[in-house]
Amino acid sequence: MSAAGQAKEDFTFTPENLSRAKTIIAKYPEGRQQSAVLPLLDLAQRQNANWLPRAAMDYVAALLDMPPMRVYEVATFYTMFNLAPVGANLVQVCRTTPCWLRGSDDITRTCCQKLGVGLGETTADGKFTVKEVECLGACANAPMVQINDDFYEDLTPESMAKLIDDLAEGRKPSVGSQTGRRGSCAQDGATTLRGKTS
Amino acid sequence: MPKLIINGHEIEVAAGASVLQACEQMGIEVPHFCYHDKLSVPASCRMCLVEVEKTPKPVASCGLPAADGMVVHTDSPMVLKARRGVMELLLINHPLDCPICDQGGECDLQDQAVAYGSDHSRYAEAKRAVADKELGPIVKTVMTRCIHCTRCVRFADEIAGTPELGGVFRGEHLEIGNFGGGPLTSELSGNLVDVCPVGALTSKPYAFRARPWELQKTESVDVMDAVGCNIRIDTRGNEVMRILPRLNDDINEAWINDKTRHACDGLKLQRLDQPYMRVDGKLRPASWPEAFAAIAARLKTASAERVAALAGDLVDCESMFALKQLMLALEVPHLDCRQDGATYDMTARAGYIFNSGIAGIEQADAILLIGTNPRHEGTLVNARIRKRWLRGGLRVASIGAAADLTYPHRRIGGSPSAIRDLINGRDAFAKTLLAAKNPMVIVGAGALARPDGAALQALARELAEKFNMVRPDWNGFNVLQRAASRVGGLDIGFVPQAYGLGTRGILEAASSGKMEVVYLLGADEIDMDRLGNAFVIYQGHHGDKGAHRADVILPGAAYTEKDGIYVNTEGRPQLAKQATFPPGEAREDWKIIRALSETVGKTLPYDTLTQLRARLIEACPVIGAMGRLTKAEWKPFGHAGQVAVQPFEPVIANFYMTDPISRVSPTMAKCVTEIQRRDVPEAAE
Ligand code: SF4
Ligand code: FES
Fold first, then answer.
1. Could you list the residue range(s) of the whole structural domain that residue A97 is in?
2. Which of A92, B389, B419, B582 sits most deeply, having the most CB atoms within 10 A of its CB?
3. Single pTM value for the model
4. For residue B684, what pLDDT band results from cuts at 50, 70 and 90?
């Protein structure tokens, strides 16, 4: 993560994103348009292959009439903003206590070994980046990873490897629990309210 | 007004004061880092913890408003323990590299660690290291020393108005810096070094040059503009090592601009350290008697109408007064202290000073700028306007060249016709001015130094009267002079005498061969080519434009090398004090004039500075009111007349180089190449 942000290049919103941005800005009271900084940065990141170059931050700053420095502060504070290019699939392995107790170390190891990268690194083909993150809020289905916008839960090293294979070959694996569990229902079936039908 | 008890003593403080301020009012020291009395209060460092009865935990006193009936302890065991704990945490990632740190000896962290910290560290783990930041030619960084008090961020945001600093990343990774954003662009950036309580931001030009305990401190005033900032000159031996601000809430508060602070390295370069005379077209060293004799010979043969004297921008009142007396004794009528060629009317003092006072800006609710960019012409005046704007409820408009003033303002127009429009109510700002309680106009040299300056002055007066800016309790008619010597020179009357010519006339006459002798007292900002064949005497301290053109050079003293009175744009006389000696054979300026007067047979009636000052104050009593403002009587001034249509031009093309000292300063040169080059593609001048 370079402190100076990545090299300068031009950034402007596509016409659709610009009109989305305007809708977002309009949600805030007059003179408070700076409140739109987070959604706009997110929009910019989505438009720009999932990372935020400095030019995009400057662009958002100009759009919201705020000092660029204030935007840098926001963009660097939230770890969901990527300040350098990432792979097409950003694999974020949760390593907080519940996932860790349920074997997140093995998941991380599987990812790194299978892809031949270290943490924070991107594969040579640009398809995957692996990161460890703190709690993503799916503890009941630990261990889990987030890949781009989707959660994949109840992982084992085997299901993780398969997930990577699927993504590498362009298949769309099913999101959520990889053991077929529904939502975060108990693993061995319902334990309460049995006999009731809904 | 809340009454509270601190350490067993009752005290009453102003409503809204914090507990920390209440303690300071009682003379009780409360250690603190993030709190700075000129900045907003984040209450983030926790160093100022005190115990307040009935609260379970220690509280940060800087953010706690003093309330009636509070019982506060600043020296209870709980407080002492809390401070030790905070200090221990602050030092966890601090490198403790005091021996190689420029802040050593004047570091809040060092002092407070000694006074309130523990005598040893329990921390054995690795410390984090932070990459240094590149902030330009003024501020050097060692960011590992930063304690994240955010004073610098708040200074840049609030006072300087250039929000280029911030805290990026978070938690353990938090870094203060500019995120690789290039040099700081504020003219006030040197103050960051003062506000930083540790050695994270230190002075780049002064890096590793001296330790604070080696320095001799002299309290003086600045001459780089007409604001008259209060400064402290730190010297070692006969060398000015650095210049720092001195607190004066009426003028500069706690700040000075970067030219005031850093042009002082120009004091060592290109100095005139002995008299010179032009022989066969070349300047050759001469002795004082030779130089005086040459001048006396020329003055003897020239008739008085063919002699003129011009005083420059950095000249003290005493030498202008002495030169004026010498010239009058010689019956010379052509005097002017306005080398910018201004011809405005100076019969009424109210017509050429900043009547409201700089602190008066804080009472204003509508300000109109005419022909001025206060950011460059009086940086601390601009900072005061910004301070007032931050408080809310101030509207600013400008008539003049477009400029970034660090606060929003509406540009009504660029030329004098906009003033007339405003008077006739043809611009919406007229309504603002009419509705304002304390409306103000600030007229700059961009208007007054024009050939139609006297008419513009009259027009500005008409505007001030029309919008009720002048009342018994308020005078919002302000002139922002740009030269330190100007108001003093006008007060003394260093202006054309009966039938005498002003700067423009003198140059006109000289270029057509009608001026035989021109005496330049530190006057370098005129077009030397227009002096024609005149015999030019240059008295000053630097080998600048004037010295290059001179036929005789009399080496004088710079402002740090003599005692002198300067009257700032408010009309406030202040004393500059001698901190070092002039180099070589150079002498204090009044002494040179006094000695010359003897050679030309018109001996001036004083032998000491005290005697001279007594005469000066007798002739010009306002100058005797040292450090104070004298209310100027409001009476008609300016000359009604035709105002030209040309737009107002900026008067300062290059903020960092405006006088002989700053022009040779290596630091100012760096500011030009590293900072200005970014906004001004073509180097000015
Ligand atoms: S650099 Fe200095 S002023 Fe700025 S946050 Fe760090 S310690 Fe405070
Ligand atoms: S001075 Fe009070 S918290 Fe920093």
1. 89-177
2. B419
3. 0.94
4. very low
